[in-house]
Every structure is written in C-alpha cells, then in structure tokens.
Specification:
The chain has 260 residues and is of the alpha/beta class. It has seven helices and seven strands; from the N terminus they run E-H-E-H-E-H-E-H-E-H-E-H-H-E. The chain has a seven-stranded parallel β-sheet, sandwiched between helices. Helix 2 links the parallel strand 2 and strand 3. The chain is globular.
C-alpha cells in the first residue's frame, strides 16, 4: 500500500471531491482525518443525489481507518483546533489536503463585499491558515505533502470575481509554500479540476451544465474519483520530486484555450 502508516487530513472531506480524496488515500493505507462543517454528506439536485453515508463510514466499510473532526474553515480557532487535536491524538501529520471551499458565480455588481470576503476567507485564507498550523508538523515527516485544490478558473475568467481570484491565489500560495517546505523534503502541489459532478454545482442551470459538456473534449464530465486519484499520486512516493505545480484535471477543457 502506497500510503501505509501515514496520517492525512482532508478538509471539506464529507462530500464531493474531498470525500473521494479521503477514500482514495485510505484505500492505500493512510489514516484519514476527515474535516468539514457537517459530517453528513451534501446531496445535489444534479449530482450526488443518493449519497447518504458519511465518509468515515465509507472508509470503515473498505477496511480503512479514519475519524471526523468538525471544522469551519473560516474560523482560525477552529483550524488551530483541527491541527492541534490531530497532533494530540496521532502525534503526526504527513499529508494535508486543503480541499474545503465554496463557490458562487455572480459578477462584480451582484457580489457584495460581505460575500466576497466570506468566499475568499474560506477558499484562500482558510488554505493559508491550515497550511500555517500544519507546516511545523509536516516538516517533521519524511513524506510531507500538502495538496491544495484550486480550479481551472485560476487561469481564466468566468468563475466570478471572488471564486476566480481565490483559486488563482491558491495556485500562487502553492508555489510559495513549495519553496518553504523544499529544504525539509516536503512537497506542495495544487490540483485544478474542471467540471466535476458534485453537489457544489447546484447553483448552475441545465444549460450551464450542457455548455460544460460541450467544452470538455473527453466525452464525459469529471467524477470526484478523478481528482481523488490525482491527489493519491501527488501524496505518494511516485511524486516525491514534484513540487510547486498545478496539475490540471479537466478532461481537456483548457486544451484549446490560452493559459496565462
């Protein structure tokens, strides 16, 4: 097993991409601390309609080990508690997956200052804070990994001023933290998903979804497990000399578009 005896934290791990990542890491031997606001998974009107069991229950069904720690990624004290409780119970952190995030796509005129601050506070500030409190412990690991979940919208417009800006910030934060951890042998990488079939897509219309299908060269939309497998690779020893990158997993969506 590629991650045997390693301790992973996955934020936003109850649903969608985070759930798939947690299960993928567990299947390869990691003990997974699943963190989210709620333990119950989200159920979407388009995707994940029938998801009912918790991520920890799914991990247990497959013979893995995991636990749930409630955490609001907009709350610094909650993030500090997540890291502190993990260290108290397990005395180590080998892998941190910063996945938790929210999304809305209104334009600059419709986006309130409060909504902008809330989204950036979770999507970017939350990633920074989890990284800040985890780095001292990840430095001690011989297999230290941080994996940040960004988006294809980090490279192009169309995701709304708050979401696109937050994910572009995650990409640059990834590079900066990669330089910080490199002398200690740790790696920091981002994954930039395209359209993934999760409940977070509920704010879209059926026309929006159809347009996403038409923009994706490979003949299907992305599944949470596609990102889970990418995260597993970056967490494994197979990726020990890869750091500071943003791995696009989008079915080819960005292939015909210029990337800044």
């Amino acid at each position: 097993m590629r991650l045997k005896d390693r301790l992973a934290i996955v934020t936003g791990g109850s649903s969608g991409i985070g759930r798939a990542i947690a299960i993928a890491l567990s299947n390869e031997g990691a003990y997974v601390v699943v963190s989210d606001i709620d333990q119950a998974p989200k159920r979407g009107k388009y995707h994940e309609k029938n998801t009912t069991t918790s991520t920890v229950d799914e991990i247990s069904k497959s013979g893995g080990q995991g636990t749930f720690i409630q955490c609001d990624m907009s709350d610094e004290n909650g993030i500090r508690n997540l890291i502190g409780k993990t260290i108290q119970e397990h005395d180590r952190i080998d892998i941190l997956v910063n996945n938790a995030g929210i999304c809305f796509t209104s334009d600059s005129q419709e986006t309130t200052t409060e909504a902008f601050d809330n989204l950036v506070g979770i999507n970017l500030r939350g990633v920074f804070l989890a990284t800040k409190y985890a780095v001292p412990h990840i430095k001690k690991s011989e297999t230290g990994r941080i994996i940040n979940i960004a988006s294809v919208h980090a490279f192009n417009g169309g995701g709304g001023p708050a979401y696109a800006a937050s994910k572009a910030g995650v990409v640059n934060l990834t590079k900066d933290t990669a330089l910080e951890l490199a002398p200690h042998g740790g790696t920091v990488n981002a994954i930039c998903p395209g359209y993934i079939e999760t409940a977070i897509q509920d704010d879209l219309t059926e026309q929006d979804i159809q347009e996403s299908i038409e923009k994706t060269p490979l003949p299907r939309l992305g599944l949470p497990k596609d990102i889970g497998l990418a995260a597993l690779f970056l967490a494994s020893d197979d990726a020990e000399w890869i750091t500071g990158i943003s791995l696009v997993v989008d079915g080819g969506m960005l292939a015909p578009l210029p990337v800044a």
